[in-house]
């Protein structure tokens, strides 16, 4: 039987082979080898933002090696191999990520770095994007506290912050004010690279929108800043985020092994992979993490993430999803990982940064009143969360209290009066429904 060998440019490139009926007959990452019958096949190579497709005719014998598939990565990160790379953006990101434009609060041992950039085209006004506390206290504005160049199409903001979860707010045309969760940890620099959309005719957005929902989020040691030499830190996260949006696990073999053994140092890449494993996402890469030792690798992964980012709601949620609530199993002392830096949470008041995380929390809170306390931020904002992004986002133009009252009234109007039934019907946490007086 003839053999088809396909090789991608990046080690995280998604490869698929489709037959004449568009059925997938082979898939892999970076390189795949498939023994297939004679015929015509479509070969796809995908990276975030790009796809390269070829038609291949396999003869009755022999082999074909296809290795010129090279889709060009698209990313808001100003890396050399990115389609919209601009040298001025790269230099500015390197320079500004090593500064602190604003020091806020006490114990500001973490740092948030935001870099907003266009495809190189100029803008007439700076981007409208602010950093706030979860209680909507303003902290910093990219336009007022950051630095940038309208002619070169970029803005940067670096803020020293205490560890915790914050809110990024921005206007979305035709939709209004949106809030997106962002997390900062002691000793780490949280980095967001944000696409800056084209200027439009709408009077509300003459300078173009900061497309926060399409941003790349990652974390590096605080002293490291942005380094183009560590491109894999960004390209691998970009690919993993792309997979998360589609319900897939996209990690290189090296990343998979590091995740399984707790030897990783990129907490965001590990979080994305851990979520994928917890939710049972499709894995085209034939992950080496097997179910036969699930208890052990789950504990190793979860505890290592907690060691790296102990204040992160996502880290605690991953621990909950992979290992369950309660005491730590014996495996926690294995594999050189050791005890996590913080006891695992069993109740969640602040939001995780990933949308899959907040949906998992709400899903459990519908039947368990303990996991999201009634008076917490997660409970209050559950009714105004939005969709369409891998990140947790909320509609800030809607009064959540009125929205909750409207949801309860609508349920009562159709005869749903029991708290458990109402919670299941509305998708609101059971604790919130019970606090509203529904029995």
Number of strands: 18
Largest beta-sheet characterization: 6 strands, mixed
Share in helix: 25-40%
Shape: globular
Structural class: alpha+beta
Unreliable stretches, pLDDT < 50, 5 or more residues?
Answer: 329-336
Distance between the termini: 67 Å
Rg over alpha carbons? 23 Å
- Whole-number count of domains: 4
Q: How much of the residues is beta strand, in percent?
A: 15-25%
Mean pLDDT: 89
- The helix/strand series, from N terminus to C terminus, equals EEEEEEEHEEEEHEEEEEEHHHHHHHEHHH
Number of alpha- plus pi-helical segments: 12
Describe the fold and architecture.
It is a single chain. Helix content is 27%, strand content 24%. The chain has 439 residues and is α+β, with helices and mostly antiparallel strands. It folds into four domains: 64 residues, Immunoglobulin-like, CATH 2.60.40.10; 144 residues, no CATH class; 98 residues, no CATH class; 81 residues, no CATH class. The strands form four sheets. Strands 8, 9, 12, 13, 16 and 17 form a six-stranded mixed beta sheet that branches. A hairpin with a 2-residue loop joins strand 5 and strand 6. The longest helix has 15 residues. The protein is globular. About 2% of the residues have low confidence.
